[in-house]
Recover the amino acids of this structure.
């Protein structure tokens, strides 16, 4: 995941996933990569951006509709990852769903 997601002109939706991981992160990286690959094949997926430091991680995925977000949340493989996150990988997390109404970019 390098650079900014190539999103269309608004409106579209963003799912912001903020997390603090636990000390047990065995298998986390592999699952995260698998989820990005799987999400990118889902109808309505527009892109993803992610950043993490030692304490806080933020991943923003972009979607064309609320229905696409709902279908991703209900994806069976994604549900397995969600449960593993709750039971093992995360101390806590927050999910926020937003409608993007305006965007601008700066490039050199």
């Amino acid at each position: 995941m390098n650079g900014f997601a190539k999103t269309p002109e608004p409106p579209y939706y963003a799912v912001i996933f903020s997390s603090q991981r636990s000390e047990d992160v065995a298998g986390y990286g592999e699952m995260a990569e698998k989820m990005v690959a799987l999400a990118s094949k889902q109808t309505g997926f527009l892109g993803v951006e992610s950043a993490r430091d030692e304490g806080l991680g933020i991943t923003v995925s972009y979607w064309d509709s609320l229905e696409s977000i709902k279908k991703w949340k209900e994806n069976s493989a994604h549900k397995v990852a969600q449960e593993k996150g709750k039971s093992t990988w995360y101390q806590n997390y927050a999910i926020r769903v937003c409608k993007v109404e305006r965007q601008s970019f700066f490039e050199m």
Summary: The beta strands are 12-21, 45-52, 57-63, 90-100. The chain is about 30% helix and 35% strand.
